[in-house]
Design a protein that fits this description.
Elements lengths: L1 E6 L2 E6 L6 H8 L18 E4 L2 E4 L12 E3 L7 H12 L9 H14 L5 H8 L9 H16 L1
Parallel strand pairs: 1-5
Antiparallel strand pairs: 1-2, 3-4, 3-5
Length: 153
């Protein structure tokens, strides 16, 4: 079946069976491989993208539910908040293996878009749905705080 989806500001036509997770449409159908497969059950957060501006687990979001939605992947995250988060990630040298990082970054963008000055507890609460195999949580939290400061400046 064909679906038209708005992904990263561009309308794309994809062939997929109903019930196909967005993750596989992005990775296999559109070759947008920045979004990662982690657990497949929406637990780890590696597959996080934005749907209508909200962080969403793409492994459990089905193609037929997205026809009128705006989807943003890590490749399309380019607004002011995204730029601040990406710069902070580099400055704090967050990445180790990198597998979780696109999901972490998309969640951080979501947090700072909703709450540009989160407290430490708010950062922890918001980001806790993203697992990091390398346990870089301290650097992740520091990068979110730095990105918040960059947005203030």
């Amino acid at each position: 079946m064909q679906y038209q989806l708005k992904i990263n500001g561009e309308t794309r036509t994809v062939d997929a069976e109903p019930g196909t997770p967005l993750l596989w449409v992005l990775r296999d159908g559109l070759e947008l491989t920045g979004t990662k497969f982690g657990c497949g059950v929406a637990y780890c957060g590696a597959c996080t993208v934005h749907v209508d501006g909200s962080p969403t687990r793409s492994c459990q979001t089905f193609i037929e539910d997205l026809v009128d939605s705006e989807i943003t992947t890590i490749e399309g995250a380019q607004d002011k908040v995204a730029q601040a988060v990406q710069a902070a990630w580099r400055e704090k040298d967050v990445v180790q293996c990198g597998w979780c990082q696109s999901g972490q970054i998309m969640s951080a963008i979501g947090l700072l878009s909703e709450n540009p000055k989160p407290s430490d507890d708010e950062i922890k609460d918001y980001m806790q749905g993203n697992a990091c195999r390398c346990v870089t949580y301290v650097r992740i939290n520091d990068a979110v705080k730095l990105a918040s400061q960059k947005l203030e400046a």
